[in-house]
Amino acid sequence: MTAERSTVQPGDAAAAFPAGVLVVGTGLVGTSVGLALRRVGADVRLRDATPALAREAVSLGAGRLATADDPPASLAVAAVPPEAVGEVVGEILNSGAAEYVTDVASVKALPAARVGEHATDPGRYVGSHPMAGREVSGPAAALPDLFEGRPWVLCPDDGTHQQAVTRALALARMVGAAPITMTADDHDAAVALVSHSPHVVAALVAARFTAVAEQQVRLAGPGVADVTRVAGGDPELWTEILTANAGAVSAVLRGLRGDLDRVLEALETSADDRRNLRDVLRSGVDGRARLPGKHGTAHTEFATLVVVVDDRPGQLAALFADVGTAEVNVEDVRIDHSPGQPVGLVELDVRPGAEDQLGDVLRGRGWTIRG
Amino acid sequence: MTAERSTVQPGDAAAAFPAGVLVVGTGLVGTSVGLALRRVGADVRLRDATPALAREAVSLGAGRLATADDPPASLAVAAVPPEAVGEVVGEILNSGAAEYVTDVASVKALPAARVGEHATDPGRYVGSHPMAGREVSGPAAALPDLFEGRPWVLCPDDGTHQQAVTRALALARMVGAAPITMTADDHDAAVALVSHSPHVVAALVAARFTAVAEQQVRLAGPGVADVTRVAGGDPELWTEILTANAGAVSAVLRGLRGDLDRVLEALETSADDRRNLRDVLRSGVDGRARLPGKHGTAHTEFATLVVVVDDRPGQLAALFADVGTAEVNVEDVRIDHSPGQPVGLVELDVRPGAEDQLGDVLRGRGWTIRG
């Protein structure tokens, strides 16, 4: 596993990709790759099965249209849906459109298997997954800094040419991402764990609210809002993603279901045997503590100050201006909306020990501190 | 269902509770009730099974020590754990220490049944639940504005005296809360739905992280951090809460397990039959849309601006100062920490239509806007 970042200078891209980069598929991710690579001086050629999309990406500055006369690119990026990766990568390699190819699909084992079926030299392909995205899609939504600071996972296997890895690594670094290398199976298990399964569970919790009385829903507070936040995602897209990673997602959800059954048994059989319930809750605390916090370090417990603010424009500005005078770095911010009330609570997380200093400053400037 | 708020003047409490309020149990909630009532001029008497805790609450200004010579209080607040409510309320009513009693336990059906066993006139009791709390406990953690703007649920039944309801309503209003009336069963079903079950599910997701490789955990982003945020709660306390509301929690989790099984079946049997998977995800979107947003209204889709900020003290202050000049109200704020990177993303939610104005102002002041 590697995670590093270097300062990329204009011109570096020309050295890393002397024959340029071919982007096949100019949706959100492909066009963002083009924009980011153009910023560091790479020669970027664009094509899409829908030519109008490629022309739109060109008009946005993501590169120039690819032509049949282009020499083989140093690297191609197949920015197409998971189920199309095998065919597209095979076509690129077999036609000589590029020397090496990577893709950007959010699952990795399935595309790699399909590439093996379609490409005559699959070792020139290395799968990758930039862990960045937006709620919107299409070239117009592309951003040159979409990948800035985000993990970019590379999944070489025993047959992968070293040069394919080198060029995909260069791509990740050129667009500002932090490359991480793991096997395709490890990747798929990891995203099942950190993204796909939590999405399913958030949807399961949110689905409870479809058929209950309004007065019950009204009691919902910030906790359940957090748990269900990701459940708003597009059901069609998520059906595709979950289906493409069905085995890994199912493995995580089977384990979760086993724990759920232990909880249900503890709740439904004997109130005196709470051990299983307590064990599951303790595992939750332990697991939560392993999640990365700021700076990618393990979750740190911050001290929290809760400030009462009026719901008027400028109140947050006034608050943060006063926070600024305390010279305390705010690690996280949450706004807790009181139902039906013209008042909000702003929770400020700071390093333990800094809360007294910040609290004194804010009280001195007239803010009501709740904790 | 009612939800209202009125301006309480010092002196109003003396009129509402001419013979004062007796608080039994001076932990976080009981002491906070005392502090809030003292602020509006009520006569507050305090006692606790551990006399040192009552003395501590007195020293904090939450009231005076109760004595055996006190006349019956206008209202008593039994601020004791759910399993102790029945006995404590029975003792208060049977001894004549107060004319009417309420409690503050986070479940309501079980305490009401126990009061019926212990009190000779259980109609003088009305259950209630202020939906406010802190991660810390004890009188020293008490706050006079703990209940400010929070829902305070009252659960009268057919046998409840009207005067008990009137006095509990006055209590809720005096401490700044928003009273809501529903049956004990509806309350318990509601908190199972909005709080207890989401807590279990967050723990189930977080528990997956106890036994996986560090490189998998490293890919965790803001989504799973949201889903698991509440899982950090004290396992002992939550075991008590879940056990006291076992029936209602189990009913919610059984429904969730049914949907989970539909998802598992869709993932494990035929990739062609994705209908069940899509249906569950769609229900998640629909349920999420019903959750209250700011001002207790149904969830509104806000427009989101993503601003890139350096991780230095004063950056949030500078950002919000510039936001302030745009005269746009920020509805919500989230900070998205890039793993391993010295840069953060601040997501600002604003009313749809206001994002262009805010984006222009921030760009003009040198901020990088990602979306």
Q: Give, in spatial order, the strands making up the sheet with the most strands of chain A.
A: 3-2-1-4-5-6-7-8
In the CATH scheme, the class of the largest domain in chain A would be Alpha Beta
SS content category of chain A? alpha/beta
Briefly note the CATH topology name of the largest domain in chain A.
Rossmann fold
Shape of chain A: globular
- The residue fraction in helices of chain A comes out at 40-55%
pLDDT < 50 runs, ≥5 residues of chain A: 1-5, 294-300
Task: Count the domains of chain A.
Answer: 3
Give a quick summary of the entry.
Two copies of one chain form a homodimer. Chain A is 44% helix and 15% strand.
Could you give the topology of this structure?
Two copies of one chain form a homodimer.
Chain A: H1 12-16, E1 21-24, H2 28-39, E2 44-47, H3 51-59, E3 64-65, E4 75-78, H4 85-95, E5 101-103, H5 109-118, E6 125-130, E7 151-155, H6 162-174, E8 178-181, H7 184-207, H8 214-217, H9 222-228, H10 235-244, H11 246-268, H12 275-290, E9 303-310, H13 315-325, E10 332-337, E11 343-350, H14 355-364, E12 368-369
Parallel strand pairs in A: 1-2, 1-4, 2-3, 4-5, 5-6, 7-8
Antiparallel strand pairs in A: 6-7, 9-11, 9-12, 10-11
Keywords (chains A, B): Amino-acid biosynthesis, Aromatic amino acid biosynthesis, Membrane, NAD, Oxidoreductase, Transmembrane, Transmembrane helix, Tyrosine biosynthesis
Family (chains A, B): Belongs to the prephenate/arogenate dehydrogenase family.
Transmembrane segments (chains A, B): 15-37
